[in-house]
Amino acid sequence: MSSNARPSRQSGKVVQLRKGATLEMVRHTCPDSAQASLISESFGLPNIDSDGIRELHHQMIIGTADSLNEGLGNRAMQIHLQRIVGSYVGSAHGAGQFYSKAVTEARDATAKGANDMRDEDQGGPVGFDGAAQRKREFAADMGLQAHALRCAAEGVVAAYEDVVGEAWKPFQRQVENPGQSVDRKAAELQMAAFG
User: Fold this and answer.
1) Which DSSP letter does residue 174 get?
2) Do 103 and 139 contact (CB within 8 A), yes or no?
3) What does the domain layout of the chain look like in residue ranges?
4) For the chain, which end, N or C, has fewer CB atoms within 10 Å of the first or last residue's CB respectively?
5) Strand 16-18 vs strand 173-175: parallel, antiparallel, or unpaired?
């Protein structure tokens, strides 16, 4: 009995990695404590307890690790915490990106509103905010949310290092044959057309 199965060729294959969000990416997109405080003051919003959020999330991960210590080995603990921390960092990064988009929209609306020749960009009737004001307020809310999630992410990243003993890095997933199988099939079909 002969086998027509081809041996897989691993050499020469380009492996692409799907990169996850890092804490540095979060810090670039989410407001820091000073900026969050300025947003709170400027818009009359409550101040965020940045240190309290960091500490609470740090203790939560420490407590989780302590409770699972008997049931998980070191590697299993590292993998479990890697996933938890990755979800916090990813959430904060997504919130930071959304905040950046909201700020851009608020800036655009505010710039349009500064043009006296455009009636549609002027403020609303007395007692109602104009579109630009609503966009600025929305961006402020998103900024405080992004800041709170940044603090949570910083807390769990610090706890990960305390528990595991090494700095947290995002998991990088390999992308299986990106486009190679489709390209190969297309080439085979095209060659078959020649006869």
Assistant:
1) E
2) yes
3) 18-170
4) N
5) antiparallel
